[in-house]
Write a structure and sequence with these properties.
- The chain has 314 residues and is of the alpha/beta class.
- The chain is built from twelve helices and 13 strands.
- The protein has a five-stranded mixed β-barrel with strand order 8-11-9-10-12.
């Protein structure tokens, strides 16, 4: 097998309006909602996602944002001014976190999505940053918790390095949640547990459609392979996106990423890889609660959360 080009670049989309988290998002971008992370440090969600990419081995990251948002994000991903360093001189923990932010900021570039025309259009805005390289794609409002030692993103990068094929992370998902996710079906890849050669990709199917068209051999009845929220693409995904955009091929008024993925699947081998971990969607209130609990239970404050739950049950 030809040597696969290592994936060193990532795109994280953070251009959504956050309407489902209104009124908090009236003054705060949803990707910047603060969470207490597994290390016990309070951070914006987007920083947690950037750190996941870096921990997986990514060297350069493009954040796709609304017009003007890059200014606010640059203010976050920076070190301290001389005046600020003097003010925090007796706060070594603040100085350490500031150094981490400065290091992250050096890895980040920005691409602006001029108008909200869909997820696929947002990804297309990063084409110049990616050039002719494979890349990791992540969502700016999904936090991931791994069930193994490797971060979820690293699991996908390892799969790409083994196969050289574009791929999507998937998770077994009950039928009742299909309306939230893009869904795939396919045939198991011989000798690779938890990997499928995709034969169809469909955006948020109805249960009736999924039962007929998206059931997958070996997956329990009532369960489907739904997107985990991260993918590894070869650069030809931009050709598929360009075809949709130049032809004004929209669904529900937007350029859908799943439509481009389905085009890519028809043209070349495209895999689905089960991720050992969980995705947490902080773009909705119940998902935000779940995200914080999942992180807190893995943090130094895990017992605080457990005790609070026990007391609430009294």
């Amino acid at each position: 097998m030809p040597k696969t080009t290592p994936v060193t670049r990532a795109v994280i989309t953070a251009a959504g309006r956050g309407t489902r988290q209104y009124p908090a998002t009236q003054t705060l971008q949803k990707e910047m909602i603060p969470l207490v992370d597994r290390d016990g440090v309070c951070k914006p969600a987007l920083q947690i996602i950037v750190e996941e990419a870096v921990a997986a081995g990514i060297e350069r990251i493009c954040l796709v944002v609304q017009p003007g948002a890059e200014i606010l994000l640059q203010q976050h991903f920076r070190g301290l001014t001389a005046e600020e360093r003097a003010a925090y001189a007796n706060k070594p923990e603040v100085l350490a976190q500031a150094e981490k932010l400065a290091a992250l900021g050096e890895r980040i570039s920005y691409a602006v999505q001029p108008t909200p025309e869909g997820y696929g259009h947002a990804v297309y805005c990063a084409r110049e940053f990616i050039g002719n390289q494979p890349f990791l794609l992540m969502l700016g409002d999904h936090v991931y918790t791994s069930a193994e030692s490797r971060p979820c993103a690293r699991q996908l990068l390892d799969a790409f390095e083994r196969t050289g094929a574009p791929l999507s992370g998937v998770a077994l998902t009950p039928e009742a949640e299909l309306h939230n996710f893009g869904t795939v079906t396919g045939t198991p890849l011989a000798g690779a547990e938890g990997v499928w050669e995709t034969t169809a990709i469909y955006e948020k199917p109805t249960p009736e459609y999924a039962r007929v068209h998206l059931a997958t051999s070996g997956v329990p009845a009532g369960q489907y392979l739904c997107f985990f929220g991260m993918h590894v693409f070869t650069p030809d995904i931009f050709d598929c996106l360009a075809e949709l955009i130049t032809g004004d091929q929209r669904e529900r008024g937007e350029f859908q990423m799943t439509s481009a993925q389905e085009l890519l699947r028809r043209r070349r081998r495209y895999l689905a890889v089960e991720v050992h971990g969980r995705r947490h969607d902080l773009g909705v209130p119940e998902g935000l609660v779940e995200t914080q609990v999942a992180l807190a239970l893995r943090s130094p404050y895990g017992e605080v959360v457990r005790q609070a739950c026990r007391e609430e049950e009294l």
